[in-house]
Amino acid sequence: MGILNSQLYSYLNIKLFGGVNKIAKENLQALPIPKISNIQNFNIKELVIKAMKTAVDSDLQNYIHKNIFGLSNSEIDYIFEY
């Protein structure tokens, strides 16, 4: 849930599929889903819970961008600008 609802995946949805609201099964299957460790999975779950409680997901987004996908600050800035 955390990864698929991330800003990175929103960006990919726009770039790859034209940003349609309803994503087809084929589109989901085309997305790169990373293998994550048990620790990463735990951290994402905790950050999702925190985001749901506070309505602030910046820590979750930052974790996904940097720790899961290894994006640089300039790459993250580009996604946010888009």
Characterise this structure:
This protein has 82 residues and is an all-alpha fold. The protein has one domain (7-81). 66% of the residues lie in helices and 0% in strands. The protein is built from five helices and no strands. It is globular, with a radius of gyration of 13 Å. The chain starts with 6 loop residues before the first helix and ends with a helix. The mean pLDDT is 91.
Outline the fold blueprint.
Elements: H1 7-17, H2 25-30, H3 38-54, H4 58-68, H5 73-81
Helix pairs in contact: 3-4
Shape designation: globular
Q: H/E order of the elements?
A: HHHHH
Instruction: Give the proportion of residues in helices.
Output: 55-70%
DSSP helix count?
Answer: 5
Beta strand % = under 5%
The overall strand count is 0
**Alpha-beta classification:** mainly alpha
Low-confidence stretches: none
Please provide a brief summary of the model.
This protein has 82 residues and is an all-alpha fold. The chain is built from five helices and no strands.
Short descriptors:
82 residues; 66% helix; globular
